[in-house]
Amino acid sequence: MPTFQTVRGMRDLLGEEAVAFTFIISKARETASLYGYKEVITPVVEPLELLSAKSGEEIRQRMFIFKDLGERSVALRPEFTASIARLTTTALKNEPKPLRLFSVGSVYRYDEPQRGRYREFWQSNFELMGSSKPEADAEIILLTNSLMQNLGLQGYTFKIGHIGVIRGILSQEGVDEKTQNAVLQRMDKKEYDEAFRLVQSEKARIMLQGLLTLKGSSPQETVEKIGAYVADYPKAKGAAENLNEVLRLVTESGCPVEFVEPAFARGLEYYTGVIFEVYIHELDIALGGGGRYDKLIEVFGGDPTPAVGCAHGIDRIALALQTQKTALATKQEKKVAVLPITEALRVEALKIAQQFRAAGVTVEFEVMGRKMAKALEDADKRKMDYAVIVGERELKEGAVVVKDLASREQSTVPIQKLLEKIKS
Ligand code: AMP
To answer: Which among 12, 51, 150, 375 is least surrounded, fewest beta carbons within 10 Å?
Structure first.
């Protein structure tokens, strides 16, 4: 038989890595609860048509697409937003607004695998539907801030911008939406020369080039400079004002925004407003990002619904925690090995194990039928805190032997007092 490997770009998560993933997911869920986001669980496989509606050429080309046995064209979800938009226009159509939804799970993109870039990766995703106010943009950024903080990440920082600045300039100079999308995609990858080559209007080209060089000594100053720079472009100017308001709300609420990027673009096509990404200084890849998308729900056949959302890359956050050597603030519960001395004592030993588990104590029961010395040696290797040895003599007196595996101390403890002893 051949030995099997995982598919390229897909990983097994073992040991510490699996612990980190569940830790991050639990913190994301906690954040959802703190901000009032309801969890929804949607399918990994969705109709191709739904997923390709408005995610952008970049992601469309990287989807895992196949025909199911019923000849339907389907794909593995490359992100959550399309599924959430589908829900908003169907099952949740009549829900009162604002609608706050949270999801977590794996997504799939045929990216070139490298550090922090996989073909199967996990995201926690937050969407806020129904508000066009800057408070809504601020909420999505602030909840990302809370998540980063609660995870224990140090020195993380936000980069923020507004897609309406570039779009405002381009549309006023007569550049059609399709070309705008192509330009934004290249700008997202910092391929500026190629991006500008797509723009026929010389005026627009010069404006974009100038935008790249704008820089203030603080995020606020940069936004002011952008506003002044696009003074003759009403839509772009409106975008700069909106960015200014959101920036003020988040910075006043204690969110660390390192810089405003005047020519910030993101790969997904559906953004219409403020966009952002979060980083740590040690890694040059975004840990999460998002923005406003006011037109998407209409594309999916719903009533016009302004919306803003974000996704956090769990694989990359795990990498960030590892890079910063962050101790995961998980609860350290006591772990107990329950070991019957003879086979005849299995039932009594199991009863004790079940009592422990009912009280929330982790128990690894001796399922290998080993001799006591071997079982104890193994309990040490597995870093158990206690071994509870169930022997006939002690059992007759309603007791068992408890061995503290760290101090090596051993004592006989009445079964009624066992929990007290272990939890003390
Ligand atoms: P997006 O859905 O493109 O806005 O991405 C949101 C977040 O998902 C990014 O900030 C990354 O943290 C993460 N992410 C995107 N692509 C990948 C990938 N190929 N591998 C791992 N994480 C990714």
So the answer is: 12
Residue 118 CA to residue 62 CA, distance in Å, equals 12
Residue nearest (by alpha carbon) to ligand 1 atom 18: 117
- At 119-155, the pLDDT tens digits run 999 999 999 999 999 999 999 999 999 999 999 999 9
Amino acid of residue 135? E
Question: What structural domains does the chain harbor?
Answer: 15-323 (3.30.930.10), 335-423 (3.40.50.800)
Q: Rounded to the nearest whole angstrom, what is the distance from the C-alpha of residue 239 to the centroid of ligand 1? A: 25
Are the C-beta atoms of 147 and 28 separated by less than 8 Å? Answer: yes
Say how many Å lie between the CA of residue 325 and the centre of ligand 1: 22
Q: What is the pLDDT of residues 322-368, one digit of tens each?
A: 999 998 877 778 899 999 999 999 999 999 999 999 999 999 999 99
Q: How many other CB atoms are there within 10 angstroms of residue 220's CB atom?
A: 15
Residue 79 alpha carbon to ligand 1 centre in Å: 9
Query: Residue 51, exposed/middle/buried by CB under 10 A (0-12, 13-18, 19+)?
Result: buried
